[in-house]
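Below is a filled-in request sheet from our internal design queue. Each sheet records the structural input a requester submitted and the sequence that came back. We keep these sheets so that new team members can see what a complete request looks like end to end.

REQUESTER: design group, bay 2
PRIORITY: normal
MODE: inverse folding
CHAIN LENGTH: 135
BACKBONE (tokenized):
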């Protein structure tokens, strides 16, 4: 793929038309395993293979349904923390000293960010670990 197909972050845009075809040969048993894995991931075989290839190329991580649940829960937590941060910013703009509640919000933000960073680094490294047999 040429560099022009990548966006500024180096990633392939999700809505880009899929016009290129890659041919690969698989045994009948390999194809059964691929189809089973794709079905378990609730993806078509093409989408499943595309996800694995892009993950292996470091372009986009492959997310299972369990991964999506975890990420959704983290995002919900971060949104709730964001609301509290807005309140904290308003209080800081009014020059009030920090209260115990504000300190608790800051601690919550730090914990949420640490959890999110852990999960993201886990997803980023998971494909390589699985290929090396260390999942």
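RETURNED SEQUENCE:
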């Amino acid at each position: 793929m040429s560099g022009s197909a990548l966006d500024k972050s180096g990633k392939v845009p999700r809505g880009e038309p899929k016009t290129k075809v890659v041919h690969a040969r698989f045994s009948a048993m390999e194809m059964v395993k691929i189809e089973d894995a794709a079905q378990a991931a609730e993806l078509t075989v093409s989408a499943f293979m595309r996800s694995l290839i892009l993950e292996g190329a470091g372009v986009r991580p492959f997310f299972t349904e369990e991964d999506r649940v975890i990420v959704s829960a983290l995002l919900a937590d971060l949104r709730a923390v964001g609301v509290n941060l807005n309140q904290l910013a308003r209080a800081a703009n009014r020059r009030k000293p920090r209260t115990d509640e504000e300190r608790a919000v800051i601690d919550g933000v730090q914990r949420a960010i640490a959890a999110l960073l852990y999960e993201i680094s886990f997803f980023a490294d998971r494909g390589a670990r699985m290929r090396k047999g260390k999942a």
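SHEET NOTES:
- The mean pLDDT is 76.
- Residues 73 and 79 are 10 Å apart (CA to CA).
FILED BY: M.R.
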